[in-house]
Amino acid sequence: MPRFAAHAQDWKGVVPPFVGVPATLFGLLMTFLSQDVWDANRRAHQAVALEREQLATLSALSSNNGIDSDGILSAIHEYVEAVVGLEWQAMEAGGQSPETEAALNKLNAAVSGAKIGPSFQRALIDAVIGLRSARDQRLAIASAFTDDRKWAAVLIIAFITQIALAVTHLDRPKPQLLAQAIFAAAAIVPISLVASVNDPYSPPIAITSDQLAQLLEHFPHK
């Protein structure tokens, strides 16, 4: 250790502004990474909202146009039940539920087989297509590959910044430790927050199925 301390004294002379180079790179990389994560979360929220909107549209159209809607509403109930009870858990591992796919196909069959006017049936089919599109978007986000290289780059540059802080305070141990502690705290906060929402549908901070679960009380199940 004394030998290392002696050699370290030879490295004196690195000026404090040098820290700005790796620190700036860290800030830029953290910005790009967080932008990707926030964008994925925004699209994940939009997918669930669109899915709920299409289900509500199907319910409203089939309930307010004088047709026998029990079959359609029952199919909607089965679909929502499968999403909430099975698929949401499967999405935590990037998967999907075959039961949900079967329920969606059943709903499509119920709409396609309804004895109604062509224009009204077209509106119902469009809603089912929109529902399938929203589900596909939700599943695509849940199964998206996380690029670990971005996280690795952020962590490596953060470590290099710590080294830069150390070499600019070689002759002042206490200020050195204080500077490193301040940067560590400043880095840990954004890294932790972004990491907690890196997978929108997975814990610890996950988008829940509550929006869809609330619809169950509106649809009969026979």
- The strand count comes to 0
Distance between the termini: 77 Å
| Overall pLDDT level | 85
Main sheet, how many strands, which sense, barrel? none
Proportion of helical residues? over 70%
Structural class: mainly alpha
List the total number of helices. 8
Overall, the morphology is rod-shaped
- Give the SSE order as H and E letters: HHHHHHHH
* Rg (C-alpha, Å): 27 Å
Low-confidence sequence ranges: none
In terms of quaternary structure, what is this?
Answer: single chain
Q: Estimate the strand proportion.
A: under 5%
Commentary on this structure:
By secondary structure, the chain is mainly alpha-helical. It is 73% helix and 0% strand. The mean pLDDT is 85.
Structural features:
mainly alpha
How do the helices and strands line up, and which of them pair or pack?
Layout: H1 2-9, H2 20-63, H3 70-91, H4 98-112, H5 118-142, H6 148-167, H7 173-196, H8 210-213
Helix pairs in contact: 2-5, 2-6, 3-4, 4-5, 6-7
Summarize the structure.
73% of the residues lie in helices and 0% in strands.
